[in-house]
Write a structure and sequence with these properties.
Bound molecules: fe (ii) ion
Distance between the termini: 25 Å
Shape: elongated
CATH superfamily: Ferritin, core subunit, four-helix bundle
Oligomer: single chain
Structural class: mainly alpha
Number of helices: 5
CATH class: Mainly Alpha
Number of strands: 0
Largest sheet: none
Helix content: over 70%
Radius of gyration: 17 Å
CATH topology: Ferritin
Length: 168
Protein backbone atom coordinates (compact mmCIF):
# COMPACT_ATOMS: atom_id res chain seq x y z
CA UNK A 1 0.00 0.00 0.00
CA UNK A 2 1.16 3.50 -0.78
CA UNK A 3 1.88 5.84 2.07
CA UNK A 4 -0.49 8.76 2.43
CA UNK A 5 1.14 12.14 1.82
CA UNK A 6 0.57 13.08 5.40
CA UNK A 7 2.11 9.83 6.75
CA UNK A 8 5.04 10.28 4.36
CA UNK A 9 5.53 13.81 5.65
CA UNK A 10 5.32 12.71 9.28
CA UNK A 11 7.91 9.98 8.67
CA UNK A 12 10.20 12.50 6.98
CA UNK A 13 9.79 14.60 10.11
CA UNK A 14 10.92 11.65 12.21
CA UNK A 15 14.02 11.22 10.04
CA UNK A 16 14.90 14.79 11.01
CA UNK A 17 14.15 14.04 14.67
CA UNK A 18 16.43 10.98 14.65
CA UNK A 19 19.21 12.91 12.91
CA UNK A 20 18.85 15.67 15.48
CA UNK A 21 19.06 13.08 18.28
CA UNK A 22 22.17 11.70 16.56
CA UNK A 23 23.79 15.14 16.46
CA UNK A 24 22.84 15.76 20.08
CA UNK A 25 24.59 12.55 21.16
CA UNK A 26 27.57 13.37 18.96
CA UNK A 27 27.98 16.75 20.71
CA UNK A 28 27.70 15.06 24.10
CA UNK A 29 30.32 12.49 23.09
CA UNK A 30 32.78 15.27 22.26
CA UNK A 31 32.10 16.98 25.57
CA UNK A 32 32.60 13.73 27.51
CA UNK A 33 35.88 13.34 25.67
CA UNK A 34 37.01 16.80 26.79
CA UNK A 35 36.12 15.85 30.39
CA UNK A 36 38.45 12.85 30.06
CA UNK A 37 35.57 10.38 30.20
CA UNK A 38 36.56 8.28 27.21
CA UNK A 39 34.16 5.39 27.84
CA UNK A 40 31.21 7.76 28.13
CA UNK A 41 32.45 9.37 24.91
CA UNK A 42 32.55 5.99 23.15
CA UNK A 43 29.11 5.07 24.46
CA UNK A 44 27.62 8.33 23.22
CA UNK A 45 29.35 8.06 19.83
CA UNK A 46 27.74 4.66 19.48
CA UNK A 47 24.35 6.10 20.51
CA UNK A 48 24.82 8.75 17.83
CA UNK A 49 25.47 5.99 15.27
CA UNK A 50 22.31 4.20 16.41
CA UNK A 51 20.16 7.29 15.95
CA UNK A 52 21.60 7.69 12.47
CA UNK A 53 20.67 4.06 11.77
CA UNK A 54 17.13 4.81 12.96
CA UNK A 55 16.89 7.64 10.43
CA UNK A 56 18.12 5.31 7.66
CA UNK A 57 15.66 2.63 8.71
CA UNK A 58 12.79 5.10 8.32
CA UNK A 59 14.14 6.31 4.97
CA UNK A 60 14.27 2.75 3.68
CA UNK A 61 10.72 2.12 4.81
CA UNK A 62 9.47 5.26 3.03
CA UNK A 63 11.24 4.25 -0.18
CA UNK A 64 10.00 0.65 0.07
CA UNK A 65 6.49 2.03 0.46
CA UNK A 66 6.65 4.15 -2.67
CA UNK A 67 7.13 7.45 -0.86
CA UNK A 68 9.71 10.21 -1.09
CA UNK A 69 12.43 11.02 1.39
CA UNK A 70 13.01 14.70 2.05
CA UNK A 71 15.59 15.88 4.55
CA UNK A 72 15.21 19.13 6.43
CA UNK A 73 17.37 21.65 8.25
CA UNK A 74 18.27 20.67 11.80
CA UNK A 75 18.52 22.88 14.87
CA UNK A 76 21.90 23.34 16.47
CA UNK A 77 22.28 20.74 19.22
CA UNK A 78 22.68 21.96 22.80
CA UNK A 79 26.30 22.33 23.86
CA UNK A 80 28.38 23.52 26.79
CA UNK A 81 26.89 21.16 29.36
CA UNK A 82 27.78 21.95 32.96
CA UNK A 83 28.43 18.35 34.05
CA UNK A 84 28.28 14.72 33.05
CA UNK A 85 25.05 14.37 35.00
CA UNK A 86 23.51 17.29 33.09
CA UNK A 87 24.34 15.50 29.83
CA UNK A 88 22.87 12.17 30.90
CA UNK A 89 19.75 13.99 32.13
CA UNK A 90 19.45 15.73 28.75
CA UNK A 91 19.98 12.39 26.98
CA UNK A 92 17.17 10.81 29.01
CA UNK A 93 14.90 13.77 28.27
CA UNK A 94 15.71 13.39 24.57
CA UNK A 95 14.79 9.68 24.60
CA UNK A 96 11.50 10.45 26.35
CA UNK A 97 10.79 13.11 23.73
CA UNK A 98 11.53 10.65 20.91
CA UNK A 99 9.21 8.07 22.49
CA UNK A 100 6.41 10.64 22.37
CA UNK A 101 7.22 11.42 18.73
CA UNK A 102 6.96 7.72 17.88
CA UNK A 103 3.65 7.45 19.76
CA UNK A 104 2.38 10.38 17.68
CA UNK A 105 3.34 8.56 14.47
CA UNK A 106 1.63 5.41 15.71
CA UNK A 107 -1.53 7.40 16.54
CA UNK A 108 -1.54 8.74 13.00
CA UNK A 109 -0.94 5.30 11.44
CA UNK A 110 -3.80 3.91 13.52
CA UNK A 111 -6.19 6.68 12.59
CA UNK A 112 -5.34 6.18 8.91
CA UNK A 113 -5.70 2.39 9.30
CA UNK A 114 -2.21 2.18 7.79
CA UNK A 115 -1.36 -1.35 8.92
CA UNK A 116 2.07 -1.55 7.33
CA UNK A 117 3.26 1.64 9.01
CA UNK A 118 1.84 0.41 12.31
CA UNK A 119 3.80 -2.80 11.94
CA UNK A 120 6.94 -0.88 10.98
CA UNK A 121 6.62 1.45 13.98
CA UNK A 122 6.30 -1.39 16.47
CA UNK A 123 10.07 -1.94 16.33
CA UNK A 124 10.61 1.70 17.30
CA UNK A 125 8.18 1.52 20.18
CA UNK A 126 10.07 -1.46 21.61
CA UNK A 127 13.42 0.18 20.90
CA UNK A 128 12.38 3.31 22.81
CA UNK A 129 11.57 1.25 25.90
CA UNK A 130 15.16 -0.03 25.76
CA UNK A 131 16.66 3.39 25.14
CA UNK A 132 14.77 5.12 27.94
CA UNK A 133 15.66 2.29 30.30
CA UNK A 134 19.37 2.36 29.36
CA UNK A 135 19.58 6.12 29.90
CA UNK A 136 17.70 6.08 33.17
CA UNK A 137 19.96 3.28 34.47
CA UNK A 138 22.99 5.32 33.46
CA UNK A 139 21.61 8.42 35.16
CA UNK A 140 21.05 6.43 38.34
CA UNK A 141 24.68 5.25 38.27
CA UNK A 142 26.00 8.75 37.61
CA UNK A 143 23.99 10.20 40.50
CA UNK A 144 25.06 7.41 42.82
CA UNK A 145 28.74 7.83 42.00
CA UNK A 146 28.87 11.62 41.91
CA UNK A 147 30.94 13.68 39.46
CA UNK A 148 34.28 12.83 41.11
CA UNK A 149 33.78 9.06 40.83
CA UNK A 150 32.66 8.82 37.24
CA UNK A 151 35.74 6.82 36.35
CA UNK A 152 34.16 3.98 38.35
CA UNK A 153 30.96 4.32 36.33
CA UNK A 154 33.14 4.09 33.22
CA UNK A 155 34.39 0.65 34.29
CA UNK A 156 30.80 -0.53 34.65
CA UNK A 157 29.79 1.08 31.37
CA UNK A 158 32.73 -0.56 29.63
CA UNK A 159 31.58 -3.98 30.89
CA UNK A 160 27.99 -3.28 29.80
CA UNK A 161 29.11 -2.20 26.34
CA UNK A 162 31.00 -5.47 25.87
CA UNK A 163 27.88 -7.53 26.61
CA UNK A 164 25.51 -5.35 24.60
CA UNK A 165 23.93 -7.02 21.62
CA UNK A 166 24.84 -5.11 18.49
CA UNK A 167 22.10 -2.85 17.16
CA UNK A 168 19.92 -4.38 14.47
FE1 LIG B 1 16.21 6.75 17.72
FE1 LIG C 1 17.52 6.78 21.04
Amino acid sequence: MMLSDSMNKALNGQIANELFASMTYRQMAFEFDVMGLKVFAAKFQSQADEEHDHAMRIAKYILDSGGNVELSALDKPQSGYKSAQAMVEAALASEIKVSKQIYGLMDQAESEKDHSTRSFLKWFIDEQVEEVSTMSDLLQLVKMAGESNLVLVEQRLHELMKTETPAE
